[in-house]
Design a protein that fits this description.
Elements lengths: L22 H15 L1 H4 L12 H14 L11 H17 L9 E5 L2 H15 L8 E5 L4 H10 L2 E5 L10 H7 L4 E7 L11 H11 L2 E6 L6 H6 L16 E4 L12 E5 L2 H5 L3 E3 L7 E3 L8 H38 L4 E3 L6 E6 L4 H10 L5 E3 L4 E5 L9 H18 L6 H6 L8 H16 L1 H5 L1
Parallel strand pairs: 2-3, 2-4, 4-5, 5-6
Antiparallel strand pairs: 1-7, 6-7, 8-9, 10-11, 11-13, 12-13
Helix pairs in contact: 3-11, 4-11, 5-6, 11-13, 12-13
Length: 457
């Protein structure tokens, strides 16, 4: 079991303290904890997760958040500013993602990528509810598990299409063969989380049009960087709402939108599709109730901070960050290609993934971990992924990557017969997960939330 964090230095609160602590003491503790954890990514050696990584920017967002942190956006009569922020976040995102091609596009601000995807799945189910009793959708295997989760929650069967192992793009023929009368929508990623590859959106759109069904493009990761990558010439394919057949697209403001964690935008080509998924209860004794999404109360601070990030950076700010990230990613990929035993999967973009041909790539990971790198582990096949974010664009990180990767490859080649340590946790089990894996995962999740020691010992 993971030891209870910081139990040796700070008291563990098992019950609400009778007398509260001083604000200065509470803040000092928080500052101490944060200052010890931030160095894990400040070095630029951590894949993804810290998209901006610029403390001045975070301070700015936190200040924007603070003016409205206490406001509940449900009470709009008290906060017309929330309506302004939300409408402008949606409008700016729609514009960025090609909604001008449609006469009546609309959007929804949600709490994150999983929520945007869930709302898209719900909208396809609800807008087809009269004709289809047992709806299904088809997603590429590489599309995010949030689709499977949403399917599970909302009773939509999620059919999983294989991807071409060479291109890491969805197998279009498989999708075409598996569309049936109950299929309400298809899914494509721009780009997917695992490999950073973009599915053939134009072809999926064509198929969706032929079958008169929806197509959701998951741009949770790429939505705020690929449009700028395309402007700069790093991306040569179309992937947004301007592509015929695309009916919705998700884009996470809390990733490459450089806003605070807790917001994402779901864009719809047609307002009617968005409006199909509202839930409201007009006859509740507590009053007439309606909320646009799954959340009830939401902090006005998140809308303010997201809006602040967008208008402060502007197109030129996003474009410049995108340029640095794409350039750094290309250089890091060149460093991988320099090694014959490593192979980059598909044609990636700002995010890339690689596997090894003569040994388990987790041996490379074992070594890189010792040098302070934190890559994301993948399976089927075992691979490592690096989502390049702003922290990697700092001076010196690329050079460290080149040196450490070369040393890691030498280590892996020398230990090709040894089992990789990190592979035992992150790598794939031949034949797929066992029932024991199931138990283990439930145990890990419970341990993360309950921390039995805090409650019982
Ligand atoms: C992060 C991500 C999601 C899920 O978003 P959350 O904000 O983590 O809920 C979905 N799709 C892709 C491609 C992502 O990268």
């Amino acid at each position: 079991m993971v030891p209870f964090p910081y139990a040796e230095e700070y008291p563990v609160h098992r019950v609400l303290p009778e007398d509260g602590a001083r604000r200065t003491d509470v803040l000092a503790q928080l500052e101490d904890l944060a200052s010890r954890e931030d160095p894990t990514w400040e070095t630029g050696q951590c894949s993804g997760t810290m998209y901006c990584g610029d403390h001045e920017h975070y301070d700015f967002l936190n200040r924007a958040f603070s003016y409205f942190s206490h406001v509940n956006t449900l009470q709009r009569d008290m906060c017309p500013s929330a309506t302004k922020f939300e409408a402008e976040i949606i409008a700016m995102t729609l514009d960025l993602l090609g909604a001008a091609a449609h006469t009546d596009p609309a959007g929804l601000v949600t709490s994150g990528g999983s929520a945007s995807i869930a709302h898209a799945v719900l909208a396809y189910r609800e807008s087809n509810a009269h004709e289809v009793q047992r709806p299904n959708m088809i997603k590429p295997e590489t599309a995010h598990p949030a689709f499977d989760k949403a399917g599970h929650l909302f009773g939509v069967e999620m059919r999983v299409a294989p991807v071409d192992p060479r291109t890491a793009q969805v197998d279009l023929d498989w999708v075409r063969e598996h569309v049936d009368a109950n299929t309400v929508a298809l899914v494509g990623s721009a780009c997917n989380y695992g490999y950073g590859t973009i599915d053939p959106i134009a072809e999926l759109g064509q198929l969706a049009l032929e079958r008169n069904i929806g197509l959701h493009v998951d741009g949770c990761l790429g939505g705020f960087i690929l449009p700028f990558g395309r402007e700069l010439g790093y991306v040569d394919t179309d992937f947004d709402l301007s592509v015929p057949g695309v009916t919705s697209m998700s884009a996470d403001t809390h990733k490459y939108g450089y806003a605070l964690k807790g917001t994402s935008v779901l864009c719809f080509a047609d307002r009617a599709l968005r409006n199909s998924q509202y839930f409201y209860q007009p006859d509740w004794s507590g009053g007439k109730y309606c909320s646009p999404g799954m959340d009830g109360s939401r902090s006005g601070g998140l809308l303010a901070a997201t809006w602040a990030a967008m208008v402060q950076l502007g197109r030129s700010g996003y474009r410049e960050y995108a340029r640095q990230i794409f350039e750094t990613s290309a250089a890091m990929q060149r460093a991988v290609r320099a090694h014959e035993s490593l192979r980059i999967i598909g044609s990636p973009s700002f995010l890339f993934s690689f596997t090894a041909t003569d040994y388990d790539v987790y041996l490379v990971n074992d070594f890189l971990r010792l040098r302070g790198w934190r890559l994301n582990g993948q399976q089927y096949p075992n691979a490592l992924h690096m989502a390049v974010t702003r922290p990697q664009t700092q001076p010196g990180v690329l050079e460290r990557w080149e040196t450490d990767l070369a040393d890691a490859v030498a280590y892996a080649e020398a230990h090709a017969d040894a089992p990789a340590q990190s592979g035992a946790i992150y790598g794939g089990v031949p034949g797929g997960p066992t029932p024991e894996t199931d138990d283990l995962i439930r145990f890990f999740m419970a341990d993360m939330m309950d921390h039995q020691q805090a409650i019982t010992d």
